[in-house]
Amino acid sequence: MSDPHASRILTRTTGALLACAILGGCEKPTAREPFVHLDLENSTAEASYLAPPSVTGAVADRTGAVIVTGRAGPKAQVVLSTPEGETLHASANAQGVWTLSLPQAGHPRLFAISSRQAGRTVHAEGALVTLPHARVAAVMVRAGYAALPIGTGGHLDIVAVDYDPNGFAGVSGVAAPRSPVRLSVDGLPAGVTETDAQGRFAVLAANRPLSFGSHVLEAATPGGVVRQTVELTPPTPLNGPYSASSVPAGWTVEWALNGGGVQTTLVMAPPHA
Questions:
Q1: How does DSSP classify residue 35?
Q2: CB atoms within 10 A of CB 255
Q3: Which residues pair with 255 in a beta bridge?
Q4: What pLDDT is recorded for position 93?
Q5: Are 116 and 46 in contact (CB under 8 A)?
Q6: What distance in Å separates the CA atoms of residue 121 and residue 84, rounded to the nearest whole number?
Q7: What percent of the residues of the chain are helix, what percent strand, and what percent coil, each to the nearest 5?
Q8: Which of 34, 134, 155, 175 could make a disulfide contact with 81, Cβ separation 3.0–4.6 Å?
Q9: What is the β-pairing status of strands 224-232 and 213-221?
Q10: Which DSSP category does 81 fall into?
Q11: Can you tell me the distance from the alpha carbon of 37 to that of 125, in angstroms, rounded to the nearest whole number?
Q12: Is 24:97 a contact under the CB 8 Å cutoff?
């Protein structure tokens, strides 16, 4: 992250309050709002008293429902809510593990996640997007960074690309756990990272801003190389906090950033889908 362009991207966008944008503004947030702001500084302060909720797994069952598992504080009450007003609840066990079945949908859905324990509420950093017919059942979208794949693992693969009109781009995928990953874009080195314990990686394409149009992504690890051609398209005007559309590569999810602007998450369809 020492690259000046990458640092500028993070400074400009990680403060974006995705969930506030979903609500249509954060001037006067209240405890009753189903989506609350993703103020990273406030989230860190709250986390010192209560563990923020996270999603650790997601898998689609035979009916198309997505079974989501995660972690929160022991015995915490976990809430997933949508911009459309749907609210789903789960209870974490004594070890802080929770599970929730999200109903079948033929299109991507976005959920804000919060948990409540001992009279305090804390919010996840990012929002969950579930996806039908994609390489993963869900991703966590994060302002100013690449989406985090959920509930996947195994062979090397590029899962998603995030980008905005200013040239920011981030790439995420899966590989062997704790494995170095080198990202190239159009044949040029673009970033280096390492997969986490679950085999997931997310890296900024920090060598240069990316223009709209076709790009060839390459992720290389000691175990192999995978390439993916993607088409980055300008965002369409939003009539709400987010929109989703099917494209040849998979699903495009566009979501509003607080204060204006849109970040686009392109999640790949399964090979030969």
A1: S
A2: 24
A3: 242, 263
A4: 95
A5: no
A6: 21
A7: 10, 45, 45
A8: 34
A9: antiparallel
A10: E
A11: 9
A12: no
The rounded distance, in Å, linking the Cα atoms of 157 and 268 is: 10
pLDDT at residue 47 in the model: 42
Q: Which phi and psi (to 5°) does residue 225 adopt?
A: -135, 140
Domain covering 153-268: architecture = Sandwich (2.60)
Q: Which two tokens stand for residue 253?
A: 């999810």
Regions in the chain scoring below 50 on pLDDT: 1-47, 273
Q: At a CB cut-off of 8 Å and minimum separation 6, what does 115 contact?
A: 50, 51, 52, 53, 72, 73, 76, 77, 78, 79, 92, 121, 122
How many residues are recorded in the chain?
273
User: CB of 160 within 8 A of CB of 183?
Assistant: no
**Which residues have a Cβ under 8 Å from the Cβ of 41 and sit 6 or more positions away?**
none
Rounded to two decimals, what is the model's pTM? Answer: 0.80
H helices, E strands: number in the chain = 3, 20
Per the structure block, which two tokens stand in for 108?
Answer: 């991507």
Residue 224, phi then psi, degrees to nearest 5: 155, -175
CA distances from 79 to 33, 91, 95, 200, 204 (A): 12, 9, 17, 25, 30
Q: Please, what's the b/e burial string for 48-63 (b: 16 or more CB within 10 A of its CB; e: otherwise)?
A: eebbbbbbebbebeee
Task: Give domain limits for the chain.
Answer: 9-129, 153-268
User: 149 pairs with which residues across the strands?
Assistant: 139
CA dist 106 to 45, 55, 185, Å? 38, 21, 32
- Give the model confidence (pLDDT) of 144-171 as tens digits: 889 999 976 668 999 999 999 999 999 9
Fold match between domain 9-129 and domain 153-268:
yes
* Cα 69 to Cα 124, 212, 239, distances in angstroms: 14, 36, 31
Q: Which of the four CATH numbers 2.60.40.10, 3.10.450.50, 3.60.21.10, 2.40.370.10 does domain 9-129 have?
A: 2.60.40.10
Identify the H or E element spanning 42: helix 40-47
